Amino acid sequence: MKIDLGDVAALARGCAVLGTGGGGDVRTGALAARRAIEEYGAVPLVRPRDLAADALIVPLSGIGAPTVSHEMIHGEEEPRRIAEEIERIFGRPPDVVMSSEIGGANGVAPVAWAAQLGLPLLDADGMGRAFPEVQMVSMYVAGLPADLVIMADVAGNVVTIRPVDGLWSERLARAVCVAAGSHALMADYVLTAGRARGALIEGTVSRALAVGRATEGPAPLRALRDELGAVQLISGKLTDVERRTTGGFVRGTATIEGTGDDRGRRLTLELQNENLVAVEDGRVRAMVPDLITVVDTETAAAIQTEALRYGQRVTVLAWPCDPLWRTPEGLRTAGPRAFGYDLDYVPVEELTK
Amino acid sequence: MKIDLGDVAALARGCAVLGTGGGGDVRTGALAARRAIEEYGAVPLVRPRDLAADALIVPLSGIGAPTVSHEMIHGEEEPRRIAEEIERIFGRPPDVVMSSEIGGANGVAPVAWAAQLGLPLLDADGMGRAFPEVQMVSMYVAGLPADLVIMADVAGNVVTIRPVDGLWSERLARAVCVAAGSHALMADYVLTAGRARGALIEGTVSRALAVGRATEGPAPLRALRDELGAVQLISGKLTDVERRTTGGFVRGTATIEGTGDDRGRRLTLELQNENLVAVEDGRVRAMVPDLITVVDTETAAAIQTEALRYGQRVTVLAWPCDPLWRTPEGLRTAGPRAFGYDLDYVPVEELTK
């Protein structure tokens, strides 16, 4: 199949849902995707199993402060410069583009990058959701060495990092990003399809498309819940949002008071770019790496952390993350303690049964 | 000729003089040089004209906050990692090591780096003195593109920057350096001997050695003055030092009141890591890029900006910079206005005749 103009809106809606409140504004990515498809044509979507073992995958993502990313349309030069650097290093250009992060803008924008490079897009990503740090990707959890990061900024600079590990990769990439004006395009874990086996979260572009399409019918919230296999944590009104932005990260809490069937209940979300923990009456009902998304009760459109406002009528959905995140290494990388919560991970299915 | 154990002290003294108060503590570089010569043997010193046109020169320097550099002995892994990255990029290892900056620790430490790599040292550098910023090198002034910077830190990370220009090179390298713990080894302007023609300041290692040796006799100050062809701006006592360290840069002023023949005179130095401007009675007597160095009146040992103390008996010497720095591009890059002084450059010979 191909991703064409008519698919972009659904893909963007789906990526917003999988972004669990973070991952940047999908509208920026959608605009870039539409423009690139108009200029270069529809983008073939290929499955990992369709690739030859030596096919070179370039996982791409925008890195930077969300507030800056919102205002920027990604240029065409950055993907090209990264592809050139890959050719210099590997002796051949990449064969396929992958989204490093399906949740948020980084799930949609790779359509534009693939179109600009004349490459297909891989139906997979490195998170199955959104996460804030460079090392929080399936390739890292699978134990692949974080041995190469390539960054390109709008000024035309290209920086290649050979970090000793994923944590250094995050630290150095972040510093380069800030120096480059708080926004850059990044290739992380460039790898062959053979090496990628078991280290990607597969089918996530198709899933985002399906999730986005689910909300096109007459009962969008129910359809979305069914498509995700999600538990509805609460439906009600946003009564309190406390949020501060420090160092490019949004932190805070949001409180929802139940209405209708949920009257008398009250759910609090802990936010760090993404919605990370949901608490009701002192009891945790869902926690990272499981997915928690706040949607508009009527339209089922996902609401980003930064767009949460007092009085909104919202529903909070939670559903299981990819099994990779539930492994010991997955939880070490992106479990509740990786975000500073003194909580042992319990799957959302158990917390809500 | 070769640089052997017996040469290190003189080289270090000479590099301190050429450092014009900056360039880091030469003791760190001297210690590294001695250790490396003990382990790997003396280091051949070769002239640019002795190199084949395609010989690959790797200009190296430590980058970072002086306070951190003082406490660190450079590791052996960093030069090796940079050489490996050069081999990856150029398809062959470097042939000769060059000091990017002869003034200060970066003039001495390349002896160690060359010894560790088993390579000769080039009798040339990119400054003929010390300067604080990455783009303030002769290769930049000569118009060579600042198209590649390779950095290696103690943790083992290697970062390659392909900047759009020298100013971006400074900005990105500085950010990586800070993220890497405020110290890294850097290769800047890796180039062939053929391309380097006219873009290096030649003979500066020999010159530093000669300058250092000049101070070994019975009348060190006079011998140093003669060797440098320097004007003695004042001899006296340090009566006021005002200095603050911000963002890894030392800024301030130092005032010397004349004694002996200079009684009644008073000279003020403007400091920014290096001694940049010397003023007497509201009249500038020497300014950057000409060299201004404060030496101990008795031993003629150079005193670093950070080691200036009330009561020291000092003599201030000034002498002409390399002609390259007096070209329009040289002055744009490292003239008084590049450091924020609203002064038109006038050569020290004219200011003091």
Automatic annotation (TrEMBL), chains A, B:
One Pfam family recorded for the sequence: S-Me-THD_C
Residues annotated as domain S-Me-THD N-terminal: 7-161
Residues of the S-Me-THD-like C-terminal domain: 166-348
Superkingdom in the source lineage: Bacteria
Record-given protein name: DUF917 domain-containing protein
